[in-house]
């Protein structure tokens, strides 16, 4: 890989990333990736920042902030808001921070220092989070996200102020103890009025307007009996529902995965009938890349293929959902043999069903697999680049297709060596060349 194919760091929370100026990098030809439209490019420098009443206008200048040292705790994950203006990041101190990107992100000659606009503190670990699907920085009432904290109700909080807007109780009817969801899904297909939670052998549907102690509007067990899987003819899957994703084609199919290495498919956006379940253990991929429980499910843009990410795995599984339970292949060489949740991203790459998988590794590398669904069996990465000096816990593509956010770090003891706990935004102009 030549230097021309290297991503350029345009913003970072790490002080040492801001020493070197941004180089003027020529863009080599890479026509297999579709260039973003001019309207998409404006996402990063639009009037969202020009309105004096905009929440970002007062706080994007790092000089305004008392510079918080964010390197003390590792970044567990980061995600773009749907409007592309903001990053939501969770850290090892259990806090969730909002980073509003500056209007001149891609125009300055040096990298920006990223400082949090708002911080939602928590004394307990956050198990899952989900951003309101119609988040728009121009309308503060839409700048919301959900989070589940151990032994507490689910919180609906503002991304612009450290405050909860509403809470939703998920309580065991027998023990009256709080149930902590290990996965949350706030899909646009439900119109922003409902969200889904995944917990121990249970998927629940909540109505946003029914806050407080009313609980979910529906409870859907993933198995007829939590005690014995054989009850009910063995139908369903037992275990903590640790990941969920709805098919992007609009057919309403929900995929749910468990720490016990099962995947189930449900109709009607998760509130309908069970379409089928399958185990991802004891496959050819298991012998080569391992796996100890589902941590993320991602659909291909065409909705045909499901990408399954696990903890303690050196790759990503590829399943053809048109044939339920049939593994098409697997991506290897990811370097992610850890219990940490390490988020991948599936990115559309132009015409028809062409797409790519981007993922980070424990070695600080970011890797890309091009058109992984076109390969049967094992597939090695097509491209890789060093982006951090520690475990890359998230890779998140911006909707423009030429900007990527990554974050890094891991839990260490006092003598664990030098850590790279940072959040970075990268410009990749080579993805735009014709």
From TrEMBL:
Stretch list, region Disordered: 19-63
Protein's recorded name: Uncharacterized protein
InterPro entries attached to this UniProt entry: SWT21/TCAB1_mRNA_Telomere, WD40/YVTN_repeat-like_dom_sf, WD40_repeat_dom_sf, WD40_rpt
Ranges of biased composition (kind: Low complexity): 35-58
Short name of one Pfam family: WD40
SUPFAM superfamilies cross-referenced by the UniProt entry: WD40 repeat-like
Gene3D superfamilies in alphabetical order: YVTN repeat-like/Quinoprotein amine dehydrogenase (2.130.10.10)
């Amino acid at each position: 890989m030549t230097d021309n194919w290297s991503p350029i760091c345009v913003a970072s929370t790490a002080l040492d990333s801001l020493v070197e100026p941004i180089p003027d990098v020529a863009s080599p030809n890479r026509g297999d990736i579709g260039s973003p439209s001019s309207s998409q490019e404006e996402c990063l420098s639009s009037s969202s920042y020009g309105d004096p009443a905009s929440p970002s206008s007062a706080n994007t200048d790092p000089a305004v902030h008392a510079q918080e040292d964010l390197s003390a705790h590792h970044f567990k994950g980061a995600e773009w808001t749907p409007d592309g203006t903001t990053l939501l990041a969770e850290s090892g101190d259990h806090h969730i921070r909002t980073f509003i990107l500056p209007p001149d992100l891609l125009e300055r000659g040096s990298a920006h220092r990223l400082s949090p606009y708002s911080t939602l503190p928590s004394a307990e670990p956050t198990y899952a989070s989900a951003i309101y699907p119609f988040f728009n920085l121009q309308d503060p009432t839409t700048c919301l996200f959900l989070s589940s904290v151990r032994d507490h109700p689910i919180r609906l909080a503002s991304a612009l102020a450290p405050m909860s807007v509403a809470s939703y109780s998920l309580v065991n009817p027998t023990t009256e103890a709080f149930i902590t969801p290990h996965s949350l899904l706030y899909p646009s297909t439900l119109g922003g009025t409902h969200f889904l939670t995944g917990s121990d052998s249970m998927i629940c549907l909540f109505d946003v307007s029914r806050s407080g102690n009313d609980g979910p509007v529906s409870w859907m067990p993933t198995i007829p009996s939590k005690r014995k899987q054989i009850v009910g003819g063995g139908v369903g899957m037992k275990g903590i529902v640790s990941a969920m994703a709805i098919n992007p084609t609009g057919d309403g199919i929900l995929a749910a995965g468990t720490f016990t290495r099962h995947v189930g498919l449900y109709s009607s956006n998760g509130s309908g009938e069970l379409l089928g379940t399958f185990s991802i253990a004891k496959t050819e991929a298991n012998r080569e890349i391992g796996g100890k429980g589902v941590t993320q499910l991602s659909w291909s843009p065409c909705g045909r293929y499901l990408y399954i990410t696990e903890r303690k795995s050196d790759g990503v599984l590829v399943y053809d959902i048109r044939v339920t339970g049939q593994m098409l292949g697997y991506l290897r060489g990811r370097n992610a043999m850890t219990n940490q949740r390490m988020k991948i991203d599936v990115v559309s790459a132009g015409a028809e069903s062409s797409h790519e998988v981007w993922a980070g590794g424990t070695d600080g590398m970011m890797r890309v697999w091009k058109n992984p669904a076109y390969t049967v069996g094992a597939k090695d990465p097509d491209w890789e680049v060093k982006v951090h000096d520690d475990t890359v816990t998230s890779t998140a593509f911006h909707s423009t297709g030429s900007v990527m956010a990554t974050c890094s770090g891991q839990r260490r003891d006092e003598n664990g060596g030098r850590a790279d706990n940072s959040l970075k935004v990268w410009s990749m102009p080579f993805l735009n060349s014709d």
